[in-house]
């Protein structure tokens, strides 16, 4: 259990040193004026330290006040890091308190004569919660309530309306703060200023200058992903290096993915997934140093989204240990004259052999013929040499330059059309009333969005093409197993492995038949 969890645990439930239920009931019989109260503490944001100091301060204040009144605290409810204004947030301890107030006693059986909070907005911020709390509180007579405003009579006539007015004012103030925060966030983004609450991975504490080691790791990861590496491989590499997030946690698949998809990498600013643009509809460049180019960012985002099919999670496919598993196919001719054509699997070679792995056709019970066996190292090298030669030939002969995107003028016209419609509507043009404006706006926005998506796809293609290195042999050696497999599968449909016959024979390259993909 972490330090924060230990603090919260001590501030929840029955306080230490509290007399037993029987002893408390004896105390009440001796002094009927004694009040057994419960305390509720809540904070929406635990701060960057995440040390629960906010609720600790609240409970300390309530404990001091209870001593002044001679009240006995019999239970403490604590909801840390939980908002009271968001409907989707479940406050477990608040719900338990409502139940206990209704039954009239704590889970251990202590009677409840009152409630303490540092302020009523700790308890409720929405009308529904106020009504439920008031109903549970007044389910029993003569209870007391204390907060920063002093003693409050919740049974008084008209207090329910007074409470609803207070809730409405609190809710309005909360929404006003949220609106101001959103506007401030967006205005800072438009000015190109950093709005990150935490130090982004890759940048220093000032969120502007780069941390060389982290920036270099991101730059390499982007190039690797564009070239075919998976986010899972990058995650493994960063863990092995010892990188941690700016919050001090080990990197996981999702956090690495978030780093690589962040437009901040190329200097752009995003708000809720949309690039922040200036009056000319161009992406605003932030004040921080960029790590990669915009084209590289478009390429890496396209690669991640395409590979994840938009699911946002690792596909969970099998990670192969050997280069040609599933690519090699058995070419043995069966008794009926047909070819086995079963996918061969990689296996660890026997310890007395000079090589470490081999490929073999599956056993007959698994659908194979178990007749073809190939030495792993020489098979891998031969297929790699074939694919490298193919890539070099393609690079030398085709020299395919992706042409410029041909719809830049269409995008500009669509943007200008939308801007003109907005200006005419805002300036009170009688020909553009509300109905005309809102009827035409969606089509123009859809057109702009579609063209921007096409532009991003084109930029991604350009970046991927530029990422191809001239020295294919050198770049091949630095690629991961997954990257090599992807390149092999793009060049080849399969490699048919013919049986070598019985006995210990020399490795025969002619028994490996590549099935090339067409140039298309």
List keywords for this structure.
11% strand; five-stranded mixed sheet; 520 residues; alpha/beta
Brief overview, please?
The protein is of the alpha/beta class. It contains 16 helices and 13 strands. The protein has a 5-stranded mixed beta sheet, sandwiched between helices. Strands 8-12-13 form a 3-stranded mixed beta sheet.
Question: What secondary-structure arrangement, pairings included, does this model have?
Answer:
Blueprint: H1 3-10, H2 21-30, E1 36-43, H3 53-69, E2 72-80, H4 92-103, E3 114-116, H5 120-123, H6 127-137, E4 144-147, E5 150-152, H7 159-190, H8 212-226, H9 231-241, H10 253-261, E6 270-271, E7 274-275, H11 294-308, E8 328-330, E9 345-348, E10 357-360, E11 373-375, H12 376-397, H13 408-426, H14 434-467, H15 472-477, H16 481-491, E12 492-497, E13 512-516
Parallel strand pairs: 1-2, 1-3, 3-4, 8-12
Antiparallel strand pairs: 4-5, 6-7, 9-10, 10-11, 12-13
Helix pairs in contact: 4-6, 6-7, 8-11, 11-14, 13-14
Pfam family, one: Resolvase
Domain Recombinase: 200-310
Protein name: DNA invertase Pin-like site-specific DNA recombinase
């Amino acid at each position: 259990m972490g330090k924060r969890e230990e603090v919260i645990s001590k501030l929840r439930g029955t306080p230490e040193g509290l007399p037993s239920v029987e002893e408390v009931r004896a105390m009440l019989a001796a002094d009927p004026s004694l009040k057994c109260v419960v305390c509720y503490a809540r904070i929406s944001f635990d701060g960057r330290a995440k040390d629960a100091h906010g609720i600790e301060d609240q409970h300390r204040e309530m404990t001091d006040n209870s001593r002044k009144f001679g009240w006995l605290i019999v239970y403490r409810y604590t909801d840390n890091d939980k908002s009271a204004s968001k409907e989707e947030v479940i406050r477990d301890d608040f719900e338990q308190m409502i139940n206990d107030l209704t039954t009239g006693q704590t889970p251990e059986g202590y009677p409840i004569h009152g409630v303490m909070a540092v302020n009523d907005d700790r308890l409720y911020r929405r009308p529904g919660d106020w009504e439920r709390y008031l109903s549970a509180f007044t389910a029993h007579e003569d209870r007391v309530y204390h907060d920063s405003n002093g003693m409050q009579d919740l049974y008084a006539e008209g207090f329910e309306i007074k409470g609803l007015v207070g809730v409405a004012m609190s809710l309005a103030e909360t929404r006003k703060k949220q609106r101001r925060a959103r506007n401030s966030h967006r205005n800072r983004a438009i000015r190109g200023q950093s709005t990150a609450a935490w130090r982004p991975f890759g940048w220093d504490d000032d969120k502007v200058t780069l941390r060389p080691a982290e920036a270099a790791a991101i730059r390499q990861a982007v190039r690797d992903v564009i070239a075919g590496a998976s986010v899972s491989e990058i995650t493994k590499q960063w863990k092995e290096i010892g990188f941690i997030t700016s919050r001090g946690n080990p990197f996981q698949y999702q956090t690495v993915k978030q780093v690589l998809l962040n437009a901040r990498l190329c200097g752009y600013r995003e708000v809720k997934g949309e690039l922040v643009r200036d009056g000319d509809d161009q992406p605003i460049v932030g004040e921080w140093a960029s790590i990669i180019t915009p084209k590289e960012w478009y390429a890496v985002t396209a690669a991640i989204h395409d590979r994840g099919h938009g699911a946002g999670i690792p596909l969970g496919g099998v990670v192969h240990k050997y280069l040609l598993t599933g690519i090699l196919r058995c070419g043995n001719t069966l008794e009926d004259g047909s070819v086995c054509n079963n996918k061969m699997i990689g296996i660890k070679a026997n310890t007395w052999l000079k090589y470490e792995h081999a490929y073999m056709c599956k056993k007959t019970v698994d659908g194979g013929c178990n007749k073809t066996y190939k030495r792993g190292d020489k098979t891998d090298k031969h297929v790699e040499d074939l694919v490298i030669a193919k890539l070099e030939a393609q690079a030398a002969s085709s020299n395919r330059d992706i042409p410029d995107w041909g719809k830049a003028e269409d995008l500009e016209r669509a943007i200008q059309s939308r801007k003109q419609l907005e200006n005419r509507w805002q300036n009170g043009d009688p020909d553009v009333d509300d109905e005309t404006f809102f009827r035409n706006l969606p089509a123009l926005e859809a057109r702009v969005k579609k063209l921007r998506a096409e532009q991003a796809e084109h930029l991604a293609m350009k970046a991927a093409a530029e990422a191809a290195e001239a020295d294919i042999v050198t770049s091949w050696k630095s690629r991961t197993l997954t990257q090599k497999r992807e390149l092999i599968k793009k060049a080849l449909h399969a490699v048919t492995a013919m049986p070598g016959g019985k006995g210990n024979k020399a490795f025969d390259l002619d028994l490996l038949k590549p099935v090339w993909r067409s140039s298309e």
